[in-house]
Design brief:
The complex is a heterodimer of chains A (about 325) and B (about 475).
Chain A: H1 10-16, H2 47-50, E1 51-52, E2 71-72, H3 78-96, H4 101-109, E3 118-121, H5 127-132, H6 134-137, H7 142-155, E4 159-166, H8 171-190, E5 202-205, H9 211-218, E6 221-229, E7 240-246, E8 257-263, H10 270-287
Helix pairs in contact in A: 8-10
Chain B: E1 5-9, E2 12-16, H1 19-25, H2 31-36, H3 43-54, H4 60-63, H5 73-80, H6 84-87, H7 95-103, H8 109-115, H9 121-129, H10 133-142, E3 147-148, E4 152-153, E5 160-163, H11 172-184, E6 191-194, H12 201-217, E7 224-226, H13 230-238, E8 246-249, H14 254-260, H15 264-276, E9 287-291, H16 295-298, H17 307-320, E10 325-329, H18 341-358, E11 362-365, H19 376-389, E12 393-396, E13 401-402, E14 407-408, H20 412-422, H21 428-436, E15 440-442, E16 447-448, H22 454-461
Parallel strand pairs in B: 5-6, 5-12, 6-7, 8-9, 9-10, 10-11
Antiparallel strand pairs in B: 1-2, 3-4, 13-14, 15-16
Helix pairs in contact in B: 5-17, 7-9, 9-17, 9-18, 10-18, 10-19, 12-13, 13-15, 17-18, 18-19, 19-20
Classes of the chains: A alpha/beta (about 325), B alpha/beta (about 475).
Chain lengths: ~325, ~475
Amino acid sequence: MADQSSPDNRSSFDSHSSTDSQSSTNSQPSTDSQASTENHPPADDHPSNIVTDNPWQQLRQFTDARIGLGRAGISLPTEHLLEFQLAHARAQDAVHLPLDIETLCDDLGELALDAPIARLHSQATDRLTYLQRPDWGRRLDDDARERLTQSGGSARSSVDLAIAVVDGLSSFAIQQNAVAFLKTLLPKLAEGETPWSLAPLSVVEQGRVAIGDEIGECLNARAVLVLIGERPGLSSPDSLGLYFTWAPEVGLTDARRNCISNVRPAGLSFEDASRRLMALLKEAREKELSGVKLKDRSEDDVIEQGGARNFLTS
Amino acid sequence: MAGPYHYTLGDRRYRFECLAELMAKATPARSGDRLAGVAAETAEERVVAQMALSELSLTTFLDDPLIPYERDEITRLIIDTHDAHAFAPIRHLTVGDFRNWLLSDLATPERLAQVRAGITPEMAAAVSKIMRNQDLILVAKKCRVVTAFRDTIGLEGRLSTRLQPNHPTDDATGIAASILDGLMYGNGDAVIGINPATDNVAQSVRLMTLMDEVIQKYQIPTQSCVLTHVTNTLEAIEQGAPVDLVFQSIGGTQATNESFGFDLATLAEARDAALSLKRGTVGDNVMYFETGQGSSLSANANHGLDQQTCEARAYAVARHFKPLLVNTVVGFIGPEYLFNGKEIIRAGLEDHFCGKLLGVPMGCDICYTNHADADQNDMDNLLTLLGTAGCNFIMGIPGSDDIMLNYQTTSFHDALYLRRALDLAPAPEFAQWLEAMAIFDDVRHYRPSSALPKAFSKTLAQLPEGGA
């Protein structure tokens, strides 16, 4: 039987959670026609009084941070508890769901690439191993290395750029965003006075960033670009990272790489990410280097967005 | 180096080539030591190593440095600052005796404070390896470490929090929104500390100014910190920025710190610069350090040591510079170092114990990443255990979700949970402020006001366009 605690009353509860409902601590769900019936809970226990809303909820429009959640006693209200659990569940799924490589390769087929896609695997045999042995995720397994060396070796002459699509810590990010990003990037690589010649595209399972260096080396490429699923955040399970190395070879450190992070529809857009990457690639080709010596000037503007002014002190 | 070390169990004689190997093999299991290739190969070998370790004299750690004196400035710091006089009452003990002594009623808080300067990180690490979680809690509870700047942190029956208002683009309004949220939940008495998304001097100065203005306007008895590189903070001080605390991530080997881009001389210079500003009102602890098991291996700078021993050595660095706060960021580094909730919880308790035993004002970022096998329940467990152990401070972040660093740590709500569950009050100066500002109706029972305090309701009325 339906009583006051049934989910049917959720909508009335929600409508109560306006910014000033905390002023009703003196409890009067008085307009409720059932207020006087026997099985109605005492007025104090009406859902609108159980949770204390925060009068600064309006600040939520200025940040994605989980502010103004209100409290049940001093604890998280049920609604926000479950919201969090859902976000964490999605982030964990992004880490553990295997890359659907068939679908990915079908989707990559839309890009009308010249050469067949190379399907590769790292030395980490499965996800649990991968998570504990980053060193194995950085190296190709024997089969992958052999196949790649043969194809690179037969080409002999070097290519400008090898692109590797790597599952990393979020297969979800790759599945969602890799193809769309490449659709934006590839035309930019092909245009201009000195278009970039490309090695066959690689797709890697259980890979870390540095596996790109081995791929670039095997393919005799002057540079390598890795698209990788980044460690998922609670609100960003689909974040793509771009890592670029000039003169890739096994054993390089992060100091030799440039990174563009948080590439996803709700983060850095494909267009902006492509533009930044092209600027980096251009400078790398001119200077024949990458990493800390190559500055990403496009980040300089971050500082310009306002001083210390804010509503707390203005 | 001395060694090898032997232990005979039944008819089998175990051999450990050196002290580092013995320490590593005696360490409770964790993924980082397996990754480093230093972990015990069997469960039995681990316990045998613990038995062998328990029979070593504490003086062994003075005579047989894990990293040679000539090669590592932290070894030199440990040996050169060792206080033989403070060590005298315990120098006759073995590691096993030391555990018994720490747990005994002979080891009162006063005596523990007296022997502190005679204990080296290696002694602390060694004894922790043969202690159960409850031992780590009970002894740490007896080791109070009190520090002060604008309020007093680490007093018995108190728990402080770092308000961490990080924002992915360092947006001033977004940061201010999180600061307000935190203050209204009674958070921020350890420090208001921002990890900047853009890490350079100009951005740091901007964020320092923002926090300083908030602290001044509302007369909050707390301090601010931008968690940028020590050399950036030095430059900010030269530019006249309002620097309360100097931050640096530190590790337990010279090579780790070189990979972080500083040495002990840099820290000394930065501390002197911060002290010269004389911004503290009730104390002059001006440093804020962060640590975490696994950082040395991650920098290829672990010298064959296990990660927990490296971590304890970082506390020697910390204690030398009299910090206000030392924070072990226990679950941030990922599952290749601490695989799951069980390993994270154990490491958090070890770090807190070793820090406190050495006299370091230990707090903990009770946290996990989304690729670790851990969740909110694991954090609740560690939070409750560390509260019981007398941890100086924890993090506070809106809804546990750091939208800049992409990991989960304790929330403003979590701190209030711990206050109510274990009756842990904020720093005394801050508690008074909460009451005076009417942020809490009832500080004694940790009850926040349901209405917005006057000073802040005026503020909200001035919100930018579209904010009303």
